[in-house]
Design brief:
alpha/beta; Rossmann fold
């Protein structure tokens, strides 16, 4: 199984979180310069065109990219505090084609002061239809950063539900 992990604006995949993901498959993590590349989503898709992606996991800005990439590839995704409604850097948003279902699990920090969970819920309400399969977990006390233990639990639950 190939897992595409897309990190956020000013971050990288930590070794601890990479080890968690490696329990479920091969982890692919493209290098992304969101500040200087407004076409990050299309560039990630192009970089991964010869890979069979089975799942997409992303955090913050990577959750934004992961939302669109998983929809375009029609694979399940786990998105931590995705920057769906607002972003601090310009990114081209691809047009989505119709897909049979979009299985997406979201973890939102109830006290995230970087990405408003309310904004994310508003975005998701606007794109919800009879073909969506959204699981939304709003965690009380959680901020923008995802501790390894919570990451591990959410990843385990994600793979149990979708694979």
């Amino acid at each position: 199984m190939n897992i595409l992990y897309i990190y956020g604006l000013d971050s990288k995949l930590s070794p601890e979180k990479k080890r968690v993901l490696e329990n479920y498959g091969n982890v692919l993590t493209p290098t992304i310069d969101y500040y200087n590349n407004p076409n990050a989503i299309s560039d990630i898709l192009n970089e991964m065109k010869n890979e069979k992606i089975d799942a997409v996991i992303g955090s913050s800005m990577g959750g934004f990219a992961g939302y669109y990439i998983s929809t375009l590839l029609d694979v399940p995704s786990l998105l931590f505090n995705p920057a769906l409604e607002k972003r601090s850097v310009k990114q081209v948003v691809p047009e989505l084609k119709f897909v049979k279902t979009t299985q997406k699990k979201f973890l939102l920090g109830a006290v995230d002061n970087v990405i408003s969970p309310g904004d994310t819920l508003g975005f998701l309400a606007g794109c919800y239809n009879e073909n969506t399969d959204f699981l939304i977990h709003i965690m009380p006390g959680l901020t923008h950063n995802i501790p390894v233990d919570i990451f591990s639990r959410e990843v385990k639950d994600f793979f149990k539900k979708y694979f």
